TrEMBL record:
Keyword annotations from UniProtKB, A to Z: Oxidoreductase
Keyword RNA-binding: no
Protein name: Dehydrogenase
Domain NADPH-dependent reductive aminase-like C-terminal: 158-283
Family recorded in the similarity comment: Belongs to the HIBADH-related family.
Gene3D superfamilies linked to this entry: N-(1-d-carboxylethyl)-l-norvaline Dehydrogenase, domain 2 (1.10.1040.10), NAD(P)-binding Rossmann-like Domain (3.40.50.720)
Transmembrane segment boundaries: none
SUPFAM superfamilies: NAD(P)-binding Rossmann-fold domains (SSF51735)
InterPro entries: 6PGD_dom2 (IPR013328), 6PGDH_NADP-bd (IPR006115), HIBADH-related (IPR015815), HIBADH-related_NP60_sf (IPR051265), NAD(P)-bd_dom_sf (IPR036291), RedAm-like_C (IPR048666)
Any one Gene Ontology molecular-function term assigned to this protein's record: oxidoreductase activity
Domain of life: Bacteria
Length: 287
């Protein structure tokens, strides 16, 4: 028999998760603040609870997927959590996760935080995964259940680490989105088909993403000059072409200049033989 579990939250993500657990044969109890949203899961076999407290009472394993950390506190205010295994898949900051973990402990529950690296249509399909941090015993005991909707990646006992990894990955993504946006702006209005340009941009960015491995090696060794294929002095010298091309094309440099300015600062500090890995420290020292 499959482990029964409770799910709080039948929004877009909660519903996708719940469907995957039902499909895998887990008895599911669901609660949602607005009752109308539990229809899909009910029709697929979930038991619907009338209150969050009632839902929590139904299973030892309780998964929460609500809007934000404040809604988690609100929903669980009146629930008896003693002896419960609480898995929080609500997106939040590392600090919120740490506070929520301490809060859960005082309420007598084990706590695991999770960051979902997928959108709802990806749940139940290969490629989707969830970052987990917090109580390792909880994670190991329930890993088979947690693995039904998405892959699992445990990143540490500090409950803030899942959220930190989640936000760090998302932040890296936004840097890439900024680059994609600027690149399309440069070619816009010219005799360049967006689809043909994308066919060049995607493999280029995919290849360049691999540079993160070299950066990681340098950060781990502490020597930021080894294995550098394109050093900062050269990159700063070349950046003038990027700015002049933007000007020629009538494109704002506002997405580009923050990064170029950091490169210049690091060069001015005497680090022309590094690559951009040195900017990590620069950014961290002056937030
Ligand atoms: P939805 O907006 O679809 O659902 C939000 C859910 O939170 C609903 O169940 C809503 O209930 C509930 N809720 C909001 N406020 C409260 C409250 N004060 N008390 C109780 N319940 C409340 O969002 P998603 O399902 O998409 O997202 C849920 C979580 O999953 C979020 O933290 C999100 O960041 C995360 N996530 C979502 C992804 C996505 O692509 N959708 C991707 C990765 C993570 P009600 O129906 O009553 O409004």
């Amino acid at each position: 028999p499959r482990t029964p579990l409770t799910l709080l939250g039948a929004g877009a993500m909660g519903t996708a998760l719940g469907r995957a657990w039902l499909a895998a044969g887990h008895p599911l109890t669901v609660w949602n603040r607005t009752p109308g949203r539990t229809g899909t899961l009910a029709s697929e076999g979930a038991a619907v609870a009338g209150s969050a407290a009632e839902a929590v009472a139904a299973s030892r394993l309780v998964v929460v997927c609500l809007l934000d950390d404040a809604s988690v506190g609100e929903a669980l205010a009146a629930a008896e959590l003693t002896g419960r295994d609480l898995v929080n898949l609500t997106t939040g900051t590392p600090g919120e996760a740490r506070e929520r973990a301490a809060w859960a402990k005082t309420r007598g529950a084990r706590f695991l935080d999770g960051g979902i690296m997928a959108v709802p249509p990806m749940i139940g399909a290969p490629g989707a995964y969830v970052l987990y941090s917090g109580d390792r015993g909880l994670f190991e005991e329930h890993e088979d259940v947690l693995a039904a909707p998405a892959g699992t990646e445990y990143v540490g006992a500090d409950p803030g680490l899942a959220a930190l990894h989640d936000v760090a990955l998302l932040s890296g993504m936004y840097g890439m989105f900024a680059g994609i946006t600027h690149a399309f702006a440069l070619v816009r209005g010219e005799d360049v088909a967006p689809k043909e340009f994308a066919a060049l941009l995607v493999p280029w960015l995919t290849a360049m993403a691999g540079m993160a491995h070299g950066a990681a090696e340098r950060l781990a060794s502490g020597d930021l000059t080894t294995g550098v294929v394109s050093h900062l002095a050269m990159q700063v010298a070349g950046s003038g072409t990027l700015l002049r091309t933007a000007e020629e094309q009538g494109v704002s440099t506002e997405l580009l200049t923050p990064f170029l300015d950091l490169m210049r600062r690091r060069l001015a500090d005497g680090h022309g033989d590094e690559d951009t890995t040195g900017l990590v420290g620069l950014l961290h020292a002056r937030p």
